[in-house]
UniProtKB/TrEMBL annotation:
It comes from Candidatus Aquicultor secundus. Transmembrane segments: none annotated. One of its GO terms (molecular function) is NAD binding. Catalyzes the NADPH-dependent reduction of beta-ketoacyl-ACP substrates to beta-hydroxyacyl-ACP products, the first reductive step in the elongation cycle of fatty acid biosynthesis. Homotetramer. The keyword DNA-binding does not apply. The active site is at residue 154. It is an enzyme of class 1 (oxidoreductase). SUPFAM superfamilies: NAD(P)-binding Rossmann-fold domains. This is 3-oxoacyl-[acyl-carrier-protein] reductase. NCBIfam families: 3oxo_ACP_reduc, PRK07231.1, PRK12826.1-2. Belongs to the short-chain dehydrogenases/reductases (SDR) family. The lineage of its organism: Bacteria, Bacillati, Actinomycetota, Candidatus Aquicultoria, Candidatus Aquicultorales.
Amino acid sequence: MRLDNKVALVTGGTRGIGAAICIRLAREGASIVFTGRDIRAATPVISAIKECGVDAFFHKADVTDKERMEEVVNEVAKQLGSLDILVNNAGITRDSLFIRMKEDDWNAVINTNLNGVFNVTQATAKIMLKQRSGSIINISSVIGVAGNAGQANYAASKAGIIGLTKALAKEFATRHVRVNAIAPGFIETEMTKKLPDEAREKALAQIPLNFFAEPSDIASAAAFLASEDSRYITGQVLVVDGGMKM
């Protein structure tokens, strides 16, 4: 119970990596507040969190709506008394070769993946800096580290998250607020399971550990960075990819 009596906010927590992070942090003792755009998808996550014996709260909210996210953050702090952990997980993809990429697809990905992190973190940081403690965990990607053809918008957004992480780590360190990023590799999710066998085999061939990660593997990394076990770690990018990009 490394996170006993802590309060965590997770964006995009209704499925996949976000849901796994919510449940893992709950198992570590944290009360969980999570956001998403699908109330129905939130129901099983709420049940799983409550089975861990902690409080669970869901807010229907889009990270691109700065005013709404400020409302959520302030309500969390007022209702639960603190905000100790923030996991910026919400994200989307709109893949296309760059020469054919529509401006709307570029803007949508940047607005959700990068501007969304700005919106939520700015509101949260005001609380954490005042209480002089906190851990902010930004979910980036190996695509943000190494790039990938057909994902220029996604790569730019995830690389931007890494730069933002390092800048904020330096700004917030004197108030004991740590800021780190996780860069997942190939993760077994609903989306990746729909890939053709040929594409999956090609991806697997690039991974030295020779298997795909589960969302729980990213959740384990998040639990570590959220806890006091990582109290002397800030401004870092923890790559969880089975050795794919080493």
